[in-house]
């Protein structure tokens, strides 16, 4: 394991934590665990606690879900500093970060549809006689079909309105930041451990789309820096994605927070709770008589107040 680079030091000042849900559905018990874990660790370390609404997906995020998030968190008794940051009000911040990466030729347009990517991957699997590599989420790595497109030809296609995304050239990005990239994990007692990043396993990730001008990865990195977040507390399902965030932080000259990944809640089928699987919402639990105190007790959190 490489040694931590020289700039790995304890963040100065008062610790800053944040809970950052997306308003594309109602919060469930897994969100409550994450919010309460942030609350508990902010209290333990004498830190500030922020709320951020991650609503960059304007097609799926709805105002009523924002209202629902605020109502659920108030019901749980979690208090956040004001104002609440809404990502949809800050697309200019993400555009500036993306422009700096494009200026360094670390980003390129990709015109491949999902169907074309699947066909290219299947063709390469057949030629190689083996399975094509997948990223940590299980999706096949982008095969680089558009990576070497002529810039003038690509510009004409963009000007003509052809659908496309912008991808990070991961090999170039990793070369630009050099060796020793990583982050520090912290535990409930304040202990810390360096973790080396392995961003290459993600391939050329998407940083922006025509309909959503930033990605989760780019927006969260920019937001954490602008809000002065020093301690990121989130579920273990996002641990691998931290590799991407470290790369973007280094490329953009942003600080790397400390990280803590909490357990995930599992349903009767052995799958983590998720909005996409219609896991029971906190609102539904409240309607059937479950109290906020019961939720806090079940998740091992201190009473509110």
From TrEMBL:
<dbReference type="InterPro" id="IPR001412">
    <property type="entry name" value="aa-tRNA-synth_I_CS"/>
</dbReference>
<keyword id="KW-0547">Nucleotide-binding</keyword>
<comment type="similarity">
    <text>Belongs to the class-I aminoacyl-tRNA synthetase family.</text>
</comment>
<dbReference type="InterPro" id="IPR000924">
    <property type="entry name" value="Glu/Gln-tRNA-synth"/>
</dbReference>
<keyword id="KW-0436">Ligase</keyword>
<keyword id="KW-0862">Zinc</keyword>
<feature type="domain" description="Glutamyl/glutaminyl-tRNA synthetase class Ib catalytic">
    <location>
        <begin position="17"/>
        <end position="283"/>
    </location>
</feature>
<keyword id="KW-0067">ATP-binding</keyword>
<dbReference type="InterPro" id="IPR020058">
    <property type="entry name" value="Glu/Gln-tRNA-synth_Ib_cat-dom"/>
</dbReference>
<keyword id="KW-0030">Aminoacyl-tRNA synthetase</keyword>
<dbReference type="InterPro" id="IPR014729">
    <property type="entry name" value="Rossmann-like_a/b/a_fold"/>
</dbReference>
<dbReference type="Pfam" id="PF00749">
    <property type="entry name" value="tRNA-synt_1c"/>
</dbReference>
<keyword id="KW-0648">Protein biosynthesis</keyword>
<dbReference type="GO" id="GO:0016874">
    <property type="term" value="F:ligase activity"/>
</dbReference>
<protein>
    <submittedName>
        <fullName>tRNA glutamyl-Q(34) synthetase GluQRS</fullName>
        <ecNumber>6.1.1.-</ecNumber>
    </submittedName>
</protein>
<keyword id="KW-0479">Metal-binding</keyword>
<dbReference type="InterPro" id="IPR049940">
    <property type="entry name" value="GluQ/Sye"/>
</dbReference>
